[in-house]
Amino acid sequence: MTTYAIIGGTGLTQLEGLSIKQMHNLDTPFGSPSAAVLRGEYGGHEVLFLARHGHPHRIPPHQINYRANLWALKQAGAEAILAVNAVGGIHPAMGSGHLCVAHQLVDYTWGREHTFFEGEIEHVTHVDFSYPYDEALRQRLIEALQVLGYPHSSHGVYAATQGPRLETAAEIVRLERDGCDIVGMTGMPEAALARELDLPYACLALVVNPAAGKAAGLITMADIERELAQGIDKVRAVLGRVLAQP
Ligand code: HPA
Fold this sequence. Notes:
The protein is an alpha/beta fold. It has helices at 66-75, 135-148, 169-177, 190-196, 221-244; strands at residues 4-8, 18-24, 37-42, 45-51, 80-89, 99-101, 104-107, 152-153, 157-160, 182-184, 201-210.
């Protein structure tokens, strides 16, 4: 059986229903991960869990130590990563509450520690990143969404922005022109670092607000939190089903 690791984002700092068997307080050559890596059982299946923003939620997207997080999960025995991300919806199909299994991304982040291949390394290495998400893992998420009957998109281009501020309406128009469907702040460099460690990685995105300029009015944290509270049970159910798949 594959050992899955779930990286929980905003709204998923703990996996309710996870019976914790072990807490790994790991240190890595890149510093400390956001939180302890939890090993436990979820719906009867072994899983690792890491709260991306720490537990409680305290680390903003641009200050997350993505390298330490990925390294710690690999060290703890992760063989595949299921990443959960809260996002803004750009494409008209990506309304609040919608779930999207991203198939591509565009990286707009800057200044983040984004590679393991630097410093004293033996070979300069360029990993292939044509298709940033693992197709078999994506299909597992899509199958789970289908079985559960949740409205979802099996494709979507994820725009990774720097944050922590939200975008301007003009920036969203630009992202749309670039072909992006959803926007979030934590998709990169996480996906690329997983690839560098040879860890299959897929992203389950929950839309928690219309992106800037896509709806009348401003985006409030209260609106985002309400959507998260409403949608997170669906995310938990999808993850549970993926773990249950043989
Ligand atoms: N933009 C960027 N990141 C986000 C958003 C958004 O609108 N919503 C949730 N995370």
